[in-house]
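Page 47, continued from p. 46.
Same chain as before, 278 aa.
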Amino acid sequence: MTETANAAQADYWNATAGPVWVRLQEALDRQIVGIGLEVMRVLAPTRGEHILDIGCGCGQTSIQLAERVGPDGAVTGIDLSAPMLAVARDRPVPPGAGRVDFRQADAQSADLGSYDAAYSRFGVMFFSDPPAAFRNIAKSLTSGGRLAFACWAPLADNPWMTAPLVAAAHLLPPLPPSDPAAPGPFAFADPQRVRRILDGAGLTDVDVVRFESRIGGGDLDTAVGVSLQIGPLGAALRENPGLADQVAGAVREALAPFATPEGVKMPSAVWIVSARKP
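Result:
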């Protein structure tokens, strides 16, 4: 990969988060698949289109998009994470799907090419300079091209993240304060900020719609394992690995009430954002 404007995020997603997501790929894909499909419904890909998948991770969404554009279409999945892209490249592409290419690239600064539409499932909240990134993404869209992505609504509206944190808080050192606008999962929690960024990128028909669902699907052991390895709690345990067993017990107790016959299902809230290039 050429030099990236998001060097800190590139390091994080290659050295730290990427290997974790590779280990948890099946559980994480299952957890958020429904949200990704809702974004596809909003984007409405059609046969023969060329689509950019921003922050494609381990490739699930890129292949789903390729199925929708058909054999005359194509999907380019881009991500900063080499470990995740290695998984993506090994995924089988179903017969009748469009061509799928994966690139290690930074959507903020790379020459992305030209597309009929751009899509992202939680891949756009990690830019060091979001206005510059969305100007670059808009540049890649043809006239009339569409953009649709999912980003997390406020942390307080997402018990899948807050419940494990609250349960473990008394066992951990105080978490450092966070900048709500810094790159990270909840950087786009403010929908007005999202609107300003997309307006500034020259996009029109900006729409930000709240979408609520219950996410998860793995058994209780799987849910606890995921909670201990991702987000702020995962970061805290990487700094304090000796506390993992105590924290696991507290998290298990907090998640147990959400167990269902279909696995642990917890409330979530996201913004599904759509826009168009004039």
